[in-house]
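Q: Hi! First time doing this. I have a protein sequence and I read that you can turn it into a structure. Is that right? Here it is:
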Amino acid sequence: MQGTGRLSYTLNWVWGALDRKRLAHSFGLMREARIKVPPALGEAVYHCTTRTVNGEYLIDEVAKEALRQQLWKVAEYCGVTIGTYAILTNHFHVLVCVPQQQEVSDAELLRRYRLLHPKPTKYQSERLEVIEAELAQNGPEAARWRKRQLALMGDLSPFMKLLKQRFSIWYNKAHNRFGTLWAERFKSSLIETHENVLQIIAAYIDLNSVRAGLVTDPKEYRFCGYSEAVAGNKTAQAGISSVVGLDNWGEVHAHYREVLFGTGGAAREGAASIPERDFQRVIAEGGKLPLADLLRCRIRHFTDGAVLGRQAFVTLQLAIYRKKTGLRERMSPRGLPPWTDWGDLTTLRGLRKREQGSAASKSESGR
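A: Yes, that's right. Below is the predicted 3D structure, encoded as structure tokens:
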């Protein structure tokens, strides 16, 4: 009887804990688990965004260049690939592909470590010599070092954390400041690895500078993946090629420009953005906009939607998330507003704020 009482008490405590967890989640007192595909199960693609503290315009041209270099370097160290990216004055976007988990040799770990630390201190150099000797003998120190490196690789969260931390350290040192640089944890949306979905998200990212009114053609904006690819960066070309699903860069470029600009792939005068009044008029009249025009508007589903893809993909990810956390019981996949012909494009998270905005907000502006 006493054992039964203890069991009852334990069950009540567990259920109470679950209720407290749901209550805390409802009031925003705890962080919601990200929707991610475990690297052991397969490849996954994410659209990530993060902004500066208070949305301040802190990232000048020199800082953009530093962040651009850090982006490629940290991605290679972590073993992820970049589809495309856009760095603006108070935020950045990046399309990240996390491959299926695989073994990393000690030689590759050392190569990546040296990539991340091209100018090691005397202590780091001496310690690395010790690590190399330990790795050759597979000693305990080598095992600990190997574990620390692998913990930073092959996953979205360590990649974004390392990128933001390293840039913050550089920025604070360069500007003689201290304290946080970033406003909040980064946002991420799981994107279905379907060519049509990936191309829409990639174009939306590369058109950031166009939405902000900085340029009329993203190839003229230095700090985005498309511009780097056009300038001849092979890694950037490989990223956009993976999005398009073709190998030949000439074919990839021609196709991607059509996604960016519509028929013919030519930049059009006055196509920096759609005036707010014109957008609202079209929507109020039940009309639709060409996809290339709509991508010049701010579409919050692309940053806040949690999951983006065809309905079957979104439904599957929601089911997996529910089983894992017990949350989102009342949520269901929903189609995007009928502003254009989206096809079967579906999102997950409901939006509390307005769904779009053609004029660049402070967090979207590039200046």
